[in-house]
Amino acid sequence: MSQSIALNVNGNAVAVSVDDPAMPLLYALRNDLALHGPRFGCGLGQCGACTVLLDGKAVRSCITPISSVANRRVVTLEGLGTPAEPHPLQQAFIEEQAAQCGYCINGMIMRAAALLAEKEKPSEAHIKAVLARNLCRCGTHQRIIRAIQRAASGM
User: Which member of 25, 93, 110, 132 lies 3.0 to 4.6 Å from 147 by CB, making a disulfide possible if both were Cys?
Assistant: First the structure.
């Protein structure tokens, strides 16, 4: 039997009809709400491609049950900024050319957004420690770190 779960996604009140309350939040975001910032990577919460902000904290949406986010604030990459007015992190990633294939970038940006909300000017070591569980196969790690530092200096 389907049930409706109320969410606040990118500042909008939405309801998602689900058959299984344990369904991952990622599926609702991508399939029901057509948001494609969060990516399906490993499905095990290990790579970080699916990272979103839940009440300001970075979480892996592929392992977060939809029922656990009812009436909570979810922000995806699409909710940070717009193409016309990108978030400072998005702009910094563009300026530093931090994306190569782009698959990991959603998770990197969303995790960095949570970090910068907690700490205005993180050190390079702190950035590396926070992003250690976000995987990037292309190897743009140095550009990603520079982008986060650039955004931190401009925010």
Answer: 93
CATH number at 7 reads 3.10.20.30
**Strands 51-54 and 73-75: what pairing?**
antiparallel
Q: Are residues 60 and 118 in the same domain?
A: no
> Token match 């904290």: residue?
57
The number of folded domains in the chain is 2
The whole-angstrom separation of Cα 154 and Cα 148 is: 10
Cβ-contact 100, 138 below 8 angstroms: yes
How many Å apart are CA 83 and CA 39, to the nearest integer? 19
Quickly tell me which residue has 């931190």 as its tokens: 152
Cβ atoms 2, 67 nearer than 8 A: no
